[in-house]
Design a protein that fits this description.
Elements: E1 11-14, H1 17-32, H2 41-49, E2 53-59, E3 62-74, E4 77-87, H3 96-110, E5 115-120, H4 125-134, E6 138-143, E7 162-168, H5 172-178, E8 193-198, H6 201-207, H7 209-228, E9 231-239, E10 242-249, H8 251-257
Parallel strand pairs: 4-5
Antiparallel strand pairs: 1-2, 2-3, 3-4, 5-7, 6-7, 8-10, 9-10
Helix pairs in contact: 6-7
């Protein structure tokens, strides 16, 4: 088996042609298995031909990751909905997912698009850390059972609850993080809210599904409570006890501090 090259040698670019779209389709099945949530091959073609994005990460001729996005329009705002990003297991934890997102940002800005959205599982704190703390997205919407209960081994028969990440590409928050500087929270500690995701979620999903479902239900209730009061998730701290979401009042952002 050929060893992966260094991350700096991975090429990120647009995908073209049926062979590369087929490679995306096959890679998603290698990462998640075959489920009813598979993105069909024609959607990769349609996304590439209608203003969306099909971006690939290549180790030589081998595709090792991709990002798929489609165009969206809401309240006079054109945006991209980034539906799927996948990286092969042997290539994870090497910054490839982040490089795909940065390429996505540059490409969107070059086309005059200032917002990218995607959904993520609030129980997956490592992914949440990438979204909120490394990319600078915020999350102000919670969608219970977004995709329905599926056969995917990752979901373990649980509802597919999702937070919606909003990545305002030219906001000071995003530019600060991508320049390698840390986030400065917009509110004093007394005005923040926190939601804890306990450690060991993968084990609970596997060995104690009833307990995992209870954790998810409590998490949903907490997010619905705080988001309903005008808060948004702006950060997460990860420690031995699990992941601790940080929520701040949206008004602090919409009044100019970090308004996209």
């Amino acid at each position: 088996m050929t060893a992966p090259t260094r991350a700096g040698e991975i090429q990120i670019r647009h995908c073209h042609g049926l062979d590369e779209f087929q490679a995306c389709y096959q890679l998603q099945q290698r990462v998640w298995g075959e489920t009813e949530l598979d993105v069909p091959l024609p959607l990769f073609v349609v996304a590439a031909e209608t203003g969306g994005q099909v971006l690939g990460a290549f180790d030589g001729e081998k595709m090792v990751g991709f990002t798929l996005a489609i165009t969206g329009y809401r309240e006079d705002t054109l945006f991209l909905h980034s539906h799927m990003t996948a990286v092969l297991e042997a290539y994870r934890d090497r910054g490839i997912g982040r490089r795909l997102k940065r390429f996505q940002r540059d490409d969107a800005l070059n086309r005059g698009i200032g917002l990218v959205e995607w959904t993520f599982d609030p129980l997956e704190v490592k992914n949440a850390y990438l979204n909120l703390m490394r990319l600078g997205a915020i999350a102000g919407r919670y969608v219970p059972n977004c995709y329905g209960i599926t056969s995917s081994p990752l979901h373990r028969g649980m509802p597919t609850d999702r937070l919606v990440a909003e990545w305002w590409l030219e906001s000071p928050r995003v530019e600060t993080l991508l320049d390698g500087r840390g986030i400065e929270l917009q509110t004093p500690p007394s005005e923040r809210a926190h939601i804890l995701v306990p450690a060991g979620i993968p084990r609970l999903r596997r060995d104690a599904p009833v307990e995992a479902l209870q954790v998810q239900t409590e998490l949903r209730e907490q997010f619905q409570k705080w988001l309903g009061q005008g808060y948004i998730a702006t950060g997460i701290e990860i420690g031995p006890e699990g992941g601790r979401y940080i929520l701040e009042p949206w008004k602090n952002f919409s009044e100019g501090n970090d308004d996209p």
